[in-house]
Amino acid sequence: MRFTQRRIEEFKCPPGKRDKLAFDDEQRGLGLRVTATGAKSYLIQYTLGGRKRRIPLGSCSAISLADARKAAAKLMGELASGRDPVAERKAAAAPAELTFDALISEWASRHLAHRRPHYASEATRALRFAFAKQLKTPAASVTTKVVRAILNAIADDGRRAIARLTGAYGRAAYGWAIHADLIDVNPFIGIRLVEAVASRERVLSDAELRAIWQATEDWSPYNSIVRLLVLTGARRAEVAGMKLSELDPERTTWTIPAGRTKNHRVHILPISPQARAVLISQPHFEQDDRVFFGFRGFAHAKLGLDARSDVTGWRLHDLRRTVATGLQRLGVRLEVTESVLNHVSGSRAGIVGVYQRHDWAEEKRAALNAWGEHIAAIVEGRTAAEKVTRLRRSA
């Protein structure tokens, strides 16, 4: 049939069929493929040496009919001059030169063009984000050890679902590349994520806190966020999304609105001198309310922090548990610790939570100031327990 935009839109896959092909009467070799899911893509088909070959061009939503015809005309001209586009493409993607990024591109153009656009977009984005440091390396040199480390780091950061999806995308991409004779080994095969039970019980030692603090000396939004997590016990999304308008002018109190807390309750958190020093060191940008303007995400930065600090097997949420345990060591009352963490459980749940309206403001400030001094002591190499005034447990 002669392709027109209307005919392309009306082109359907028959019920019970996997796909359907049609070819353009106007431009020789230009084909249109529709799958059972409704995904439509252009391709070029030609015969050389008695063998029928196809080259995918891409989704009909991404390439115009005019551009598809131009691409087909160009390729058919190359054939007329004696060139073999498929052979040239395979030679250009030889295993020794095929980078991880090129493998993803080949997978996307030659295979994912026939999948749902959302899947193709998300799969390539996830792989390029998670393996940003491996994109320029040969795809064949990416090892199972490297893949496992990266996926486990994502999982340790509290994103196990994303780690599993990224692993599935990588396994599919390499599986296709093996089928296409581009590489020989799939490093994503057999990857099992670490169990989360141990990480849920992880409490960092003073030595580990010191190493993490020293590894965040150079300024960056991520390093500042990590230091505030150490000093406040707040959730990572709360700290990363902190706004200037949530801080009082002196940077001594932080009010997190209900819309940004897990339990949907306003949380007022005192700022210790150590946390205030982190806040006032942040650059300010006019016309932007975000404290950590330009922050782009946790996964890759966490890998770098693990390497610099030599502290592994932990995730950022463990800092929250570490603060809670540290406050207990300092003699802070359970009710105060739960108020610092904005927990509505344990001593603040049930009937006690209904009738106990004390906000623990002074106690929270004393507790976080003591914790800030404790962190300062261990960073400076002092004996923290001898330098911190212990807080009495009694009311």
Oligomer: single chain
Which fold name is given in CATH as the topology of the largest domain? hpI Integrase, Chain A
Q: Report the average pLDDT across residues.
A: 84
The biggest sheet, with number of strands, parallel, antiparallel or mixed sense and barrel status, is: 4 strands, antiparallel
Structural class: alpha+beta
Q: How would you name the CATH homologous superfamily of the largest domain?
A: Intergrase catalytic core
Which range does the strand content fall in? 5-15%
Order of helices and strands: HEEEEHHHHHHHHHHEEHHHHHHH
The global form is elongated
Secondary structure layout plus pairing:
Elements: H1 5-10, E1 19-23, E2 30-35, E3 40-48, E4 51-59, H2 65-80, H3 85-92, H4 100-110, H5 117-130, H6 144-156, H7 160-179, H8 197-200, H9 206-215, H10 221-232, H11 236-240, E5 253-256, E6 267-270, H12 273-280, H13 299-309, H14 317-329, H15 334-341, H16 350-355, H17 361-380, H18 384-387
Antiparallel strand pairs: 1-2, 2-3, 3-4, 5-6
Helix pairs in contact: 4-5, 4-7, 5-7, 6-7, 9-13, 10-12, 10-14, 14-15, 15-17
